[in-house]
Amino acid sequence: MLDDQRLERTVLAIAHALFMNRLHVLRLTEVVRLGIKPDASDGDNFTLPDGLDEEMRQQSVDYVLTCLPEYSKAINEIKTNWLRPA
Question: The pTM is what?
Answer without folding.
Answer: 0.84
